[in-house]
Amino acid sequence: MVADEILATAAAAELGLVRSDVRPMVAAHLLACGHDGTDLLALACLSNRSSGWQVDHLVPGTLRDIGAPDLSVEAAGEIVARLLAQDAPAISDYPLVRTLARLAPELDYPSGVIGRAYALDEWLDCDCHRDSPERAQAEAFEHEIRSLPHLNLPPPLAAALTGRHGQ
Q1: Is residue 43 within 8 Å of 24, Cβ to Cβ?
Q2: What are the backbone angles phi and psi of residue 48, rounded to the nearest 5°?
């Protein structure tokens, strides 16, 4: 069984969620979780001011160092949805649908949770759909995502993987 921090890191990498300036921090958190490897250590030693040229070439080796599985975009989307749901505010503005939907264009509109979110997001800001079945489907989808099992990750790693590390 693959550890949650490995799955979450692989999923974030597959979806392109982690910026180059945050990757050294992710690597440091993975070291703190007990993972090891030459590229992982080299990446963790870099500054957040290191150039993408210094950082990005270490990512494939880092993923190999931690034994990250190859994930499809759909599988990665499911994992990231679980990660986002762990601390997304429980507000009625559909934060999970909106966040997942924003990923769709850069990922060529995949199926799975990202595709579902993209299809549902279309109706959320239209006043003519206030009481529509689409809005009810978006609420059900938010609830479904929030009901998935949470990942067992240190909060700082989860924040770095989802872009909330500076918040």
Answers
A1: yes
A2: -70, -5
Domain ranges of the chain: 4-71+154-162, 87-147
Whether the predicted pLDDT of 80 surpasses 60: yes
pLDDT class for 133, splitting at 50, 70, 90?
A: confident
Q: What is the DSSP string of 102-158?
A: HHTGGGTS-SHHHHHHHHHHTTTT-GGGTT-HHHHHHHHHHHHHHHSPPP---HHHH
Can you give 27-46 as a three-state secondary structure string? HHHHHHCCCCCHHHHHHHCC
Please report where in the chains the tokens 């499911």 appear, as a residue: 78
Query: pLDDT tens-digit profile of 17-30?
Result: 999 999 999 999 99
Sequence-distant (6+) residues with CB within 8 A of 13 are: 59, 63, 68
- CA angle, residues 17, 20, 21, in degrees to nearest 5: 110
Q: What is the pLDDT of residue 166?
A: 53
